[in-house]
Each structure stands twice: as C-alpha cells, then as structure tokens.
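Study this one:
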Amino acid sequence: MTPFDHLIYGIAWLAFGFVHSILAGETAKWRLAALLGAKYRLAYNLFSALHIALVVFGGQALLAGQAAAFAWPARMDIALWSVRYAGAAILIGALTQYDLGRFGGLTQIRMSNRNQSAAENEPLHLSGIHRYVRHPLYAGAYLFLWGGLEDEFGLATAIWGSLYLAIGTHFEERCLLREHGARYADYRMAVPALIPWKGRAI
C-alpha cells in the first residue's frame, strides 16, 4: 500500500466516524426520530452497518491486493488468531448482556404496532461482564482488530479502527453520564473501561 492508499483508507474511516457521530447526536436523533418514528433505531443501525461494511470491505477490495503480507513465524500467527477469536468471543458474550431487540430497534417497532412505546436506550448494565469492564463491546472489538495483522491492510484497519473506538468511547462516556448521572459516575470510578485489571470490580 502506498502512502496515498493509507490516506484514502484513513479518510474513509474518518468519514464514517464523523457521520456516525453526527447521526448519534441529540439534534440529528430528534429530527430523524420525528421523521422515522419507531423505525429510527433500526434505520440508524442498518445505515451504520452498511457504512462500516463499505469502509472495510470496500477498502479491502480496492487496497488489500497492494498490501504487503507480514512474514510472521507460525507461533505469531497462532497468537494473532487466538487474539482475534478471543475478541469475537467477548463481542458475542457482551451482546448476550443486552436486549438485542431494543438494541437493534425491532422492539420499538413491535411496541409501536401495538400502540405502545418502548424505551429507546438500554438501561445501565452493572452485572455479568460489566462487573469487569464498562465497555466490553469495545474491548472485544480492539482484540478482533489487532488480531488481524496479516498484512499492511490489517495494520491500517487496526490503527484507524482503534482511533474510531477511542473517540467513540469518549462520546459514549459523556452520553452515559448525561443519561445516568451520579450512578454512572460511581460505576466509572469502580470499574475499568476496557482492561479488567481489577478483576470483578463490583
């Protein structure tokens, strides 16, 4: 990959982060919810999934063929795949802690069809894996990204994806503090963000 290739791929990631942040903001959320009603959450998630897929798979289709493969020893390959599988396991395990219907937006549509309303956001989770880290989905995503260092493209994806996750964690913290106040502030003091260095903290 040339420096220009890296630049283009980085811009694609930054564009995703910018659009995602705008759409997750209160102003855009209010306007889109007024336009789409109960379908807002599902539409938001589908658009975000499509956008990130275009960034990663589009970048892979256009750039990965020019990426130099890393000549890792066999033990390093095993270690990287172990990290990637651990990340995937954490992601799946973390998702089981959530109401996936509400998380994805289907619950809101189903309740709307019954002329009922459903809370837009998840409640504050303090049990299960959240006793060890505050952001298990992000922790799993970091491992998944850095377990994919097969070539230059994997490294670029890990770097840009990690930058996006770091910025996303910052905004997620602000949102959770605004939504849950002192309860989240106490939780944040007790439980690490990504690395469970305290063991089971609560």
User: Anything to note?
Assistant: The chain has a mean pLDDT of 90. The domain at 3-190 is CATH 1.20.120 (Four Helix Bundle (Hemerythrin (Met), subunit A)). The radius of gyration is 19 Å.
